[in-house]
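RECORD TYPE: protein structure
NAME: Tetratricopeptide repeat protein
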Amino acid sequence: MRQELMSLPKGLAEEVSRNLVMVARLIDEEPEQAYAYSRIALRLASRVAAVREAAGFAAYATQKYSEALAEFRAARRMTGSVELWPVMADCERGLGRPERALAMAGEPEVQKLDKAGQVEMRLVAAGARRDMGQLDAAIVTLQSPELASNSVQPWTARLRYAYADALLAAGREDEAREWFAKTVEADKDGATDASDRLAEMDGVEFVDAMQAEDDDQDREGRAGDEVRDDRADDLDEDDDEYADDYVDEDDDQDPAEVARAEAAADVTEYYDEDDDEYELLDRSEADADAEAERNGDKA
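PREDICTED:
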């Protein structure tokens, strides 16, 4: 890529390079942003094969398969390389043309691919078979020396995963479980979700630890509210009983005694039998009445 960019003026080359770096950084996590950077690079240097290839992968990541295929074809014409052949075939699948993808799997270009490229082409061909509803044929397509090998290569996990998934789709669950387990052994970087698929088959349910903690806190909060409400109800009942000890509608108590009792109990309401309604009485008023009564007695 650097050699290709050297054909551009220095300032332009630096600008294109910065955009290509952003494409590489964002394509997995933020494909739409990566696509936007790729369009800038393409506008600046459309005659550079590396730029056309990067634009193709950015379009592919955003499922713009027609655009991606056009960019890959342009890059291939510029370089004469066949390394993009598998992803070009997969674009045909994305466009709903699995027959074309299968046809490409039988072209002479496949023989020129390195081992990784040939495995990738096998994965694409198996996917095309599945697109056409040919599950058994997809399983047979994936059966290869690379699948049977015990050595772990960069493509091993993906190949085993595709095989396990095809077996499961065909209803061969025991075999699928075996191959998901083999995928886990090879997938040291967690590139696939084989461990989750295997756990699902075994009936294991994963719980989000953070969500579980939040749920526990919510339950504790609700329980605490209920306890506080119960305590408040108990206190209300105690207060009522306490007031009843001093205010009884059936007793003809001395008003001064009632006033002192209510003041001591912080009771601010009592029943006045004379006008048949409640009157508000605060502590200061009760104290004043009681003092007046005592002074009257002395007099």
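COMMENT: Residues 209-298 form one domain.
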